[in-house]
Structure formats: structure tokens, C-alpha cells
């Protein structure tokens, strides 16, 4: 059961001018959840200064109730955060011997900023993840998330739509999308397209050398010796599992069959 770290002041702290009403910490297993208000401030700079003061007071008040290097998941929902603010939060947590590892947000720009800063990102809230079980159909997906960064080891980017990465995905990095995944670079980590069960989703990379590929519920791992292929490839789901194909003219040569929940090659007579 999650236990919220109380925001009320003890008798010993009765002389403190004001409690940290904007910031909440919750213990969730071996990690902490840091929750910021998602309202849009009228005076952004003044609001941020006050919020940062609240955060530092909150961390100082509860210091010693966690072990050093405890991971922190930041929940900001609809609040817009820039790179400076992420830096401020990271510094405050580091001073309290905590480590920011993952960011949950519903704002596209906040997700991009967090991913560029090297944090794992989920562009949705944990509550939505817990209660959403239906298959994400292409028409129900949110707009694609476009990120210009290298996804390094330990970083996870998750989005309830398609994901476009202009950069590499290193071993230990992970990209999870409810739609398609396009890597404008070298894929050497884990890619999971159609994460909510959409079998039509595909994974494309300029260079495909993943540690694991997943589409819907299907999983594929590369053979022991990976063949060097110097062209863009697409991973797609067939009735026999996940297959790789040259990305050139893929949509012209293949079609998705809803009945089989997989891609098949078009007859030569149907090719344009």
C-alpha cells in the first residue's frame, strides 16, 4: 500500500511560516513518487520559485526517511516544465541523496524535454496505465512523439501513440509505443510497438540490431550472430511471428489483414 509522507507540520516545526502545500511525496515500494501541481500558474517564474522552495523544504523535512540513491518518479501531468526546471529538480533531489529516474506527463513538450535530459519518460499517468486495458486502435492514438536524442542505457521512453527518435537507441535503452516506432538511427536496444495490442504496428530503423523486438504480444530476439545490413529495415508481425524486411517500398509490397492480425505480401498482380 502506498503511504503518503505527511505534509502537516509537527509541533516542533510550528514556527515555520508555511507548509509545503504544493508538493507531495508518496512512498511506492522501493521508490518515491514526487507529485507537482498540474495547474497552469498565472505568474510562471514566481510560481516556480515558490514551488522549488516547497520542494526543498519537503525534502529537508523528511530527510533520513529513505536510503541513499532511492529512485524518484516525477508526476507532473499537465504542467509544462523546461530544461532549467528539470535541472532545478534534479539538483534538489541529488542534495537529498535521491535520484530522479522517470517522468510521467501528459504534455508533449515536457516529455520531449525530459527525454532530451536523459530521463525515462511516460507520456501518461500511472493511474491511466493501471485502468486502461483496451487495445489501442490506430485511430485512437495520440499524436506522434518526436524526440531528438540518444536513448541511453537505463532510459525508457513510453508514449500512447507513435514514437519517432532522431538518434540511436543504445543497448539497455527501451522505446515503448502504442503505435509505430521509427528510429532515425541505430536500434541496439529494446523496441516495443503496439504495446496495447495493436498488431498492425511496425518498427523501422535505419540500422536494425536490437536486443529485443516486440509487436503487440509477440516477442523476437536476434540470433547469436547478427548479420550486418546497411539499409533501413522494418519489423512487422505475420501469422508466423515477427519478420524483418527492407523498408524500401514496404507499404507497396505488403498489406495488413485484420482477419489474420498480421501483415502479408501482396500478390505481384496487385503491385502498383
Automatic annotation (TrEMBL):
Single biological process term from Gene Ontology: division septum assembly
A family per Pfam: MinC_C
Q: Check the record and name the InterPro entries matching this protein.
A: CAP/MinC_C, MinC, MinC_C_sf, Septum_form_inhib_MinC_C
> Could you tell me the keywords of this UniProt record?
Cell cycle, Cell division, Septation
Q: Where is the Septum formation inhibitor MinC C-terminal domain?
A: 147-241
Q: Which domain of life is it from?
A: Bacteria
Name the protein family. Answer: Belongs to the MinC family.
Q: How does it assemble?
A: Interacts with MinD and FtsZ.
Its function, per the record, reads: Cell division inhibitor that blocks the formation of polar Z ring septums. Rapidly oscillates between the poles of the cell to destabilize FtsZ filaments that have formed before they mature into polar Z rings. Prevents FtsZ polymerization.
> Could you identify this protein by its name?
Probable septum site-determining protein MinC
Amino acid at each position: 500500500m502506498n503511504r503518503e509522507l505527511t505534509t502537516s507540520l509537527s509541533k516542533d516545526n510550528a514556527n515555520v511560516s508555511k507548509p509545503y502545500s504544493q508538493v507531495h511525496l508518496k512512498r511506492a515500494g522501493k521508490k518515491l513518487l514526487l507529485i507537482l501541481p498540474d495547474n497552469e500558474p498565472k505568474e510562471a517564474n514566481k510560481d516556480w520559485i515558490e514551488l522549488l522552495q516547497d520542494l526543498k523544504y519537503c525534502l529537508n523535512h523528511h530527510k533520513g526517511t529513505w536510503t541513499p540513491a532511492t529512485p524518484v518518479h516525477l508526476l507532473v501531468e499537465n504542467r509544462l516544465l523546461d530544461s532549467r526546471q528539470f535541472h532545478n529538480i534534479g539538483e534538489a533531489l541529488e542534495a537529498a541523496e535521491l535520484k530522479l529516474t522517470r517522468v510521467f506527463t501528459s504534455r508533449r513538450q515536457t516529455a520531449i524535454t525530459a527525454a532530451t535530459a536523459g530521463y525515462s519518460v511516460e507520456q501518461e499517468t500511472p493511474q491511466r496505465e493501471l485502468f486502461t486495458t483496451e487495445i489501442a486502435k490506430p485511430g485512437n492514438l495520440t499524436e506522434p512523439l518526436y524526440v531528438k536524442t540518444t536513448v541511453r542505457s537505463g532510459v525508457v521512453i513510453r508514449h500512447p501513440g507513435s514514437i519517432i527518435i532522431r538518434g540511436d537507441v543504445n543497448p539497455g535503452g527501451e522505446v515503448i509505443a502504442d503505435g509505430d516506432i521509427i528510429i532515425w538511427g541505430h536500434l541496439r536496444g529494446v523496441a516495443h510497438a503496439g504495446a496495447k495490442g495493436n498488431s498492425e504496428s511496425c518498427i523501422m530503423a535505419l540500422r536494425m540490431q536490437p536486443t529485443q523486438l516486440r509487436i503487440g504480444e509477440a516477442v523476437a530476439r536476434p540470433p547469436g550472430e547478427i548479420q550486418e545490413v546497411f539499409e533501413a529495415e522494418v519489423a512487422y508481425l505475420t501469422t508466423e511471428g515477427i519478420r524483418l524486411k527492407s523498408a524500401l517500398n514496404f507499404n507497396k509490397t505488403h498489406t495488413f489483414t485484420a482477419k489474420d492480425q498480421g501483415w502479408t505480401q501482396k500478390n505481384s498482380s496487385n503491385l502498383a
